[in-house]
Amino acid sequence: MVARKIASKSFGYIAIICLLFVIGFFVILDVLKYIFRIDPTRGEVKQLQRKKVLKMKKKPPIAIRFIYVNESPSSMPMVEETTV
Predict the structure, then answer these.
(1) Distance between CA atoms of 59 and 55, rounded to whole angstroms?
(2) How far is CA 44 from CA 37, 40, 48, in A?
(3) Which residue from 27, 55, 29, 26 is spatially nearest to 40, judged by alpha carbons?
(4) Residue 81, helix vs strand vs coil
(5) Where is 6: in which H helix or E strand?
(6) What is the DSSP secondary structure assignment for residue 69, as one 8-state letter?
(7) What's the CA angle centered on 14, arms 11 and 17, to 5 degrees?
(8) 3-state secondary structure of 4
(9) Cα 70 to chain center, whole Å?
(10) Which range marks the domain in which residue 39 is found?
(11) Sequential DSSP letters for 8-66
(12) Tens digits of residue pLDDT in 23-64
């Protein structure tokens, strides 16, 4: 019974300490950004924005529609390519 009480208290203390570290981390980041105007994530945000712009400049995807053999005998090609 005594060991159980000690274990539950120690787990409680560890949980509280972990929560305080996480909360402290976010408070420190907010202080750096809004009080000292230092943005630790500035480089990563710019890199993500550049990737987003490059994705927008790519060619549109091509949809390939297959024409089945038994559908109708005609002189149409077997594969059509259209832009989406």
Answers:
(1) 9
(2) 16, 9, 6
(3) 29
(4) strand
(5) helix 2-34
(6) T
(7) 150
(8) helix
(9) 45
(10) 2-83
(11) HHHHHHHHHHHHHHHHHHHHHHHHHHHTS---TTHHHHHHHHHHHHHHHHSPPPEEEEE
(12) 999 999 999 999 999 988 899 999 999 988 887 777 777 888
CB 78, CB 67: distance < 8 Å: yes
Closest residue by Cα to residue 66 from 79, 81, 84: 79
Measured distance between the N- and C-terminal CA atoms of the chain, rounded to whole angstroms? 69
Residue 78's CB is within 10 A of a number of other CB atoms, namely 8
Structure tokens at 48: 């993500």
Give the residue carrying structure tokens 């000690």: 6
Structure confidence at residue 72 (pLDDT): 57
